[in-house]
């Protein structure tokens, strides 16, 4: 009954999205505020309904109710409780339900907390969100219903794909989806702005917290996915330029550009046309990613088992939303008024530069991801576009961007003074130069790019620190007053500094982990020792072990440094019983920011086993940097100025005008 | 600077960045992409040694020979022709005889394919899409759609 | 019934979330569009003051920015004034209310009845396994015992109960393992040893393996007069080709046996075969030359009937006694030849179930089925 109740709630949610799609926007167009007022409560009800159906499905997973086809195909009664729970979104139907849940969650957030918005903007935005929700709930019900039942179910399910049975899966998709799907709300805002013909500074201000929220979660989601692939797939790589990874990276690049161009729009009312277009593009790229992952046009570790009907349906949605919004854009963009003027060397100029490079980089990733698909479809020729392509295109586009990055925040609006900016950054530049030279001296001249990369990363990090320091005039007014001013800095200033610092940290991690990684692949017998980066790694032997729903062969290794024991590591090779599927479980030892990474290959009989050993210097900085970036987004969102116009304080104000006709 | 000049400059610099990006993309597409080939393609079209390619097919039954130091050699077949492959490293979990595989590397002068990466998908029924298509071309594909997903 | 009340309640809540805002009579201040815009621009003005105070911008810049923002503030004001006053058309409202009250439940119920299965109750595994035993399928009962045994692997009686069930479900290996567990825990018993031997033999298509033979020998040692283990030991001797020993064993077994016992006929036949050198019996059984010759003379309908009879005979034997991969494949092919795809698929399924534990056999079955155009699961 609970399951059918959940199913009913989902169907009801679909019917309600139709109401949401029509009534509020109609109300906004004929200026009937009662129709507009429907939007917020309905958006909250929608969220509750989808949440109910999500809870019902989760209950079916937790109770191993195999009368639900989705549970039968993706769960197993012996699976640990945590993975029964996370298994809900470890498959196509369940993850799509999560997708929809987040979609209506964002609608409900705007409904519940969007009181600072003009009623018409809020109503139309929620209507547009209603269109998107209706499309995707219909997709669920028509092609991927998670509530399909089995009358006489077997007693055991097919289990969840073992590589997805990991704590990483518990965190990665929900984070990623909050990011991915979160951009739906900026899309809805953009379409609403076009419909209402109001794109102004206030609009940009209202959209900013939503962009920040989605961007922060997308950053965390991508980082988490990268770390998960790193330790779960056992290849030691943290980014593969896999089409599915690119599918989440493209909205990130576009979203980053949007975040920056919206600032220009907010402060100067310039770049309006471009910002609205970016908001549309960002969500379009999210939709494209969803299409690529679920239609079966890609084969990838992440791709779900697919069915052509789903691909066609999503393609239809994709064409409708992207095509529709771009048509609307073409029709209405010409009516948008020109914004403020600015000189090339100015904060605006810097942000334009940022947008140019990010868009170009996004385009490069786009071409590299889709070109093989298009070529296959058109000529039937099969090619693969791998890391070399992206390193050659994406890399060079990032270098000037990072070089220019520290200048942005120190330039003033409208007309900047490059010389003054340089003056504020000379310390950062000096530090970067010194560290790059030290790197040259330490690692020798044969590695030219790595020390330059280190210098670049330090430049970005030091640049964001010095921006904060000079902003509060720390050295001129003394530390005491300096600290006071530091505390008084607006959240958005801290946000900028942290996000930029995080970029530098990630770049540093990427440069050092790729350039100075050491790797050994060796067949080892018990007692054998491998030397790697000053560590002696001894293979003591392997032994079988039993887990709840798998059996594994665990290798035991002792790690010593200069004869003294550092740690013991137990990488393993698992076989999951239900699917008879092997997985590799790497063992990782973290030393400071660096990691020692062991994974097992084939057993050779007579106790010998193939072993892959890596030393990855400073690799954790890659993900730490991402966390810092997301923290920056959080700081910026905490800026109280973003809540301006909120009616709560306004209502308390005695002079608040009431019901002006 | 007048408004018009500013706008021209803006468009000019944007154009320059995009031109650079486009140039990079085109250059990389010419140079860095890797073609997928079946064993028959390699045998009949004589791919020059040293050119990077992706070779896909089925791992021939009984052809896998492991030697010490994590080296392995095997033959990849599309049921018409076969190509010998050597690889040093850890094979993916789902590498098995009789199963689909995609390897990337170069052909050495003696005609042996030296792979630096071997991929097998994380699904027991998986035959890589390229391999399935290639086998279909050869008329050896019997699995139908059910096995291709 | 509760279900229908619940979903009716849920629908009502959804409809109310549309109806309540529609029935509002009072205008709220938040609908005044200019207020929201003004708040933003006023804040921007404040920010400029703060920045000026901190010395982040100079007075000229601040002044320019102020003018700019003031212009925006004014524009926002103008826009609101220019906008037509709010309308409150009656018809639109009526229509919207009708949608909430009628269309919303109608669409939902219709769509749900199309997609849902309201009669199907939840079936949590735990409840299924603890429900009263009556009316449960054998699979459920076996799964329950299995779970019980997984938690209490030292329950010998449990193993003894499940062992014959496995055999009747066509899982001789599981059966033998269960008997072995029962014997390990509760000590040897003639019947268990014998049945374990039988299960082992069935698992090898009737071949009495060394392991099975050991079990029968232990059973005889416990109870020298027991017939069944001696019967199998005699068969084993015959299979080994030790003709003289086998004849002696059969004669000893038949000596003084109750002639009406079911096994006596089979024993006599075996003895006759060994002494009379009739063609060997280990080859898979099939229609004889005579049967086929007779088939050639029959009319088409009779032929079909005979073939059907043979096929169903084979099917019955395979399902009750089990058989080799070849035999199963022959059965599947026969059904396809007869154009009975449904039966062929059924046979394929049971063949896969019978060889579920042997990957090699399983793939042979799948290959054969694929050639016939059947998709093995």
UniProtKB/TrEMBL annotation, chain A:
Molecular functions per Gene Ontology: lyase activity
Pfam families documented for this protein: CcmF_C, Cytochrom_C_asm
Function description: Required for the biogenesis of c-type cytochromes. Possible subunit of a heme lyase.
NCBIfam families: nrfE, PRK10369.1
Source taxonomy: Bacteria, Pseudomonadati, Pseudomonadota, Alphaproteobacteria, Hyphomicrobiales
The UniProt record lists the keyword Cell inner membrane: yes
Transmembrane segments: 6-30, 42-62, 96-114, 121-142, 177-197, 209-229, 249-266, 273-292, 312-331, 352-374, 394-413, 425-443, 449-470, 491-516, 618-638
Family annotation (InterPro entries): CcmF_C, Cyt_c_assembly, Cyt_c_biogenesis, Cyt_c_biogenesis_CcmF
Origin: domain of life: Bacteria
Record membrane topology: Multi-pass membrane protein
Keyword line: Cell inner membrane, Cell membrane, Cytochrome c-type biogenesis, Lyase, Membrane, Transmembrane, Transmembrane helix
Family, as annotated: Belongs to the CcmF/CycK/Ccl1/NrfE/CcsA family.
Subcellular location(s) of the protein: Cell inner membrane
Record domain Cytochrome c-type biogenesis protein CcmF C-terminal: where: 315-640
Protein name: Heme lyase CcmF/NrfE family subunit
Domain Cytochrome c assembly protein: 89-295
From TrEMBL, chain B:
Key words, A-Z: Cell membrane, Cytochrome c-type biogenesis, Heme, Iron, Membrane, Metal-binding, Signal-anchor, Transmembrane, Transmembrane helix
Ranges of the Extracellular topological domain: 29-149
Location(s) in or outside the cell: Cell membrane; Membrane
Family: Belongs to the CcmE/CycJ family.
Name of this chain's protein: Cytochrome c-type biogenesis protein CcmE
Residues noted as binding heme in the record, renumbered to the chain: 122, 126
InterPro entries named among the record's database cross-references: CcmE (IPR004329), CcmE-like_sf (IPR036127), NA-bd_OB-fold (IPR012340)
Membrane-topology descriptor: Single-pass type II membrane protein
SUPFAM superfamilies hit by this protein: Heme chaperone CcmE
Gene of this entry: ccmE
Superkingdom of this protein's organism: Bacteria
Primary location group: membrane
Cited function: Heme chaperone required for the biogenesis of c-type cytochromes. Transiently binds heme delivered by CcmC and transfers the heme to apo-cytochromes in a process facilitated by CcmF and CcmH.
One Pfam family, short name: CcmE
Ranges annotated as spanning the membrane: 7-29
Record topological domains on the Cytoplasmic side: 1-7
UniProtKB/TrEMBL annotation, chain C:
Compartmental location: Cell envelope
Entries under InterPro entries matching the protein: C-type_cytochrome_biogenesis (IPR051263), Cyt_c_biogenesis_CcmI (IPR017560), TPR-like_helical_dom_sf (IPR011990)
Superkingdom classification of source: Bacteria
Keyword ATP-binding: no
Keyword terms: Cytochrome c-type biogenesis, Membrane, Transmembrane, Transmembrane helix
Residue spans crossing the bilayer: 95-115
Keyword Membrane: yes
Main location: other
NCBIfam families associated with the record: cytochro_ccmI (TIGR03142)
Protein name per its UniProtKB record: C-type cytochrome biogenesis protein CcmI
């Amino acid at each position: 009954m609970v399951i059918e109740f959940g199913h009913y709630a989902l169907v009801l949610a679909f019917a309600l999205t139709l109401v949401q799609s029509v009534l509020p926007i109609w109300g906004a167009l004929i200026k009937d505020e009662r129709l507009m007022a429907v939007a917020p409560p309905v958006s909250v009800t929608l969220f509750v309904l989808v949440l109910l159906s999500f809870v019902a499905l989760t209950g079916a997973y937790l109770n191993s109710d195999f009368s639900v086809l989705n549970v039968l195909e993706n769960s197993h009664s012996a699976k640990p409780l945590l993975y029964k729970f996370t298994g809900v979104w470890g498959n196509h139907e369940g993850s799509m339900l999560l997708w929809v849940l987040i979609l209506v969650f964002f609608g409900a957030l705007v409904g519940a907390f969007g009181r600072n918005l003009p009623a018409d903007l809020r109503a139309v935005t929620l209507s547009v969100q209603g269109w998107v929700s209706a499309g995707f709930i219909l997709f669920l019900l028509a092609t991927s219903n998670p509530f399909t039942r089995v009358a006489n179910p077997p007693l055991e399910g097919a289990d969840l794909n073992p590589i997805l049975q990991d704590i990483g899966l518990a965190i990665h998709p929900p984070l990623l989806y909050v990011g991915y799907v979160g951009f739906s709300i900026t899309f809805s805002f953009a379409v609403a702005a076009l419909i209402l013909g109001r794109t102004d500074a206030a609009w940009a201000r209202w959209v900013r917290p939503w962009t920040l929220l989605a961007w922060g979660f997308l950053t965390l989601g991508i980082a988490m996915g990268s770390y998960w692939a790193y330790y779960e797939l056992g290849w030691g790589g943290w980014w593969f330029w896999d089409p599915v990874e690119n599918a989440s990276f493209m909205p990130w690049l576009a979203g980053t550009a949007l975040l920056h161009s919206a600032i220009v729009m907010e402060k100067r009312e310039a770049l309006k046309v471009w910002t609205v277009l970016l908001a549309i593009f960002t969500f379009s790229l999210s939709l494209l990613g969803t299409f690529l992952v679920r239609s079966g046009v890609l084969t990838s570790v992440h791709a779900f088992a697919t069915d052509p009907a789903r691909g066609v349906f999503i393609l239809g949605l994709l064409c409708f939303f992207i095509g529709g919004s771009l048509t609307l854009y073409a029709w209405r963009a010409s009516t948008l008024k020109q914004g403020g003027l600015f000189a090339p060397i100015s904060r605006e100029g810097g942000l334009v530069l940022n947008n140019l490079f990010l868009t170009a980089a996004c385009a490069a990733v786009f071409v590299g991801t889709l070109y093989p698909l298009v070529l296959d479809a058109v000529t039937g020729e099969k090619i693969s576009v791998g890391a070399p392509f992206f390193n050659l295109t994406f890399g060079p586009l990032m270098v000037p961007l990072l070089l220019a990055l520290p200048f942005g925040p120190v330039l003033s609006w409208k007309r900047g003074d490059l010389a003054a900016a340089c003056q504020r950054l000379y310390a950062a530049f000096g530090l970067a130069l010194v560290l790059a030279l030290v790197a040259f001296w330490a690692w020798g001249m044969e590695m030219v790019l790595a020390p330059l990369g280190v210098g670049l990363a330090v430049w970005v990090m030091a640049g964001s620190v010095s921006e904060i320091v000079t902003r509060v005039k720390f050295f001129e007014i003394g530390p005491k007053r300096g600290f006071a001013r530091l505390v008084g800095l607006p959240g958005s200033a801290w946000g900028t500094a942290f996000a930029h610092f995080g970029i530098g940290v990630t770049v540093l991690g990427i440069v050092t982990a790729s350039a100075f990684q050491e790797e050994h692949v060796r067949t080892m017998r018990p007692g054998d020792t491998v030397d790697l980066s000053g560590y002696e790694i001894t293979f003591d032997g392997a032994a079988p072990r039993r887990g709840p729903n798998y059996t594994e062969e665990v290798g035991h290794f002792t790690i010593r440094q200069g004869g003294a024991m550092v740690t013991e590591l137990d990488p393993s090779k698992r076989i999951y019983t239900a699917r008879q599927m092997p997985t590799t479980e790497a063992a990782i030892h973290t030393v400071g920011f660096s990691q020692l990474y062991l994974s097992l290959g084939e057993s050779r009989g007579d106790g010998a086993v193939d072993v892959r050993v890596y030393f990855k210097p400073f690799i954790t900085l890659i993900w730490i940097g991402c966390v810092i970036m997301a923290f920056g987004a959080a700081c910026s969102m905490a800026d109280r100025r973003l809540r301006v116009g909120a009616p709560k304080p306004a209502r308390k104000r005695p002079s608040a005008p009431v019901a002006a006709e | 600077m007048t408004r018009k000049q500013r706008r021209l400059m803006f468009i000019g610099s944007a154009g320059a960045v995009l031109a650079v990006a486009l140039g990079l993309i085109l250059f990389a597409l010419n140079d860095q992409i890797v073609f997928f080939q079946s064993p028959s393609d390699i045998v009949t079209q004589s791919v020059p040694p040293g050119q990077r390619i992706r070779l896909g097919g089925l791992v021939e039954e009984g052809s896998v020979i492991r030697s010490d130091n994590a080296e392995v050699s095997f033959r990849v077949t599309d049921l018409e022709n076969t190509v010998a492959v050597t690889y040093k490293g850890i094979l993916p979990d789902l590498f098995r005889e009789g199963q689909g595989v995609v390897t990337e590397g170069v052909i050495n002068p003696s005609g042996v394919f030296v792979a630096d990466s071997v991929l097998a998908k994380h699904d027991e029924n998986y035959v890589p899409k390229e391999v399935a298509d290639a086998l279909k071309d050869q008329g050896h594909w019997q699995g139908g759609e059910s096995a291709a997903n | 019934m509760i279900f229908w009340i619940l979903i009716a309640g849920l629908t009502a809540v959804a409809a109310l979330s549309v109806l309540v805002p529609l029935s509002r009579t009072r205008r709220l201040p938040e609908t005044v569009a200019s207020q929201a815009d003004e708040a933003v621009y006023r804040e921007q003005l404040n920010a400029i003051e703060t920045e000026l105070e901190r010395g982040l911008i100079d007075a000229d810049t601040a002044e320019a920015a102020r003018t700019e923002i003031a212009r925006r503030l004014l524009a926002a004001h103008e826009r609101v004034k220019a906008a037509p006053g709010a309308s409150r058309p009656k018809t639109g409202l009526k229509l919207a209310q009708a949608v909430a009250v009628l269309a919303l439940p109608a669409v939902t119920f219709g769509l749900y009845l199309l997609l849902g299965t309201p009669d199907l109750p939840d079936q949590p595994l735990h409840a299924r396994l603890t429900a009263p035993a009556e009316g449960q399928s054998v699979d459920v009962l076996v799964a329950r015992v299995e779970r019980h045994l997984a938690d209490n692997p030292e329950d010998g009686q449990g193993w003894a109960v499940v062992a014959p069930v496995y055999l009747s479900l066509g899982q001789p290996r599981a059966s033998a393992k269960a008997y072995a567990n029962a014997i390990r825990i509760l000590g040897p018993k003639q019947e268990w040893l014998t049945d374990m031997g039988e299960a082992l033999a069935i698992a090898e298509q009737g071949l009495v393996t060394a392991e099975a033979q050991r079990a029968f020998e232990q059973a005889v040692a416990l109870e020298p007069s027991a017939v069944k283990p001696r019967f199998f030991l005699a068969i084993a001797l015959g299979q080994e080709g030790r003709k003289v020993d086998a004849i002696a064993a059969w004669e000893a077994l038949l000596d003084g046996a109750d002639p009406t016992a079911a096994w006596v006929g089979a024993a006599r036949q075996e003895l006759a075969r060994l002494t009379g050198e009739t063609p060997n019996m280990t080859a898979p059984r099939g229609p004889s030359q005579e049967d086929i010759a007779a088939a050639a003379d029959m009319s088409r309908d009779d032929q079909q009937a005979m073939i059907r009879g043979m096929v169903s005979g084979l099917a019955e034997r395979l399902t009750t006694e089990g058989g080799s991969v070849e035999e199963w494949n022959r059965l599947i092919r026969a059904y396809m030849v007869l154009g009975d795809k449904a039966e062929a698929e059924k046979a394929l399924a049971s063949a896969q179930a019978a060889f579920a534990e042997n990957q090699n056999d399983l793939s042979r079955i799948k290959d054969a089925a694929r050639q016939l155009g059947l998709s093995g699961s």
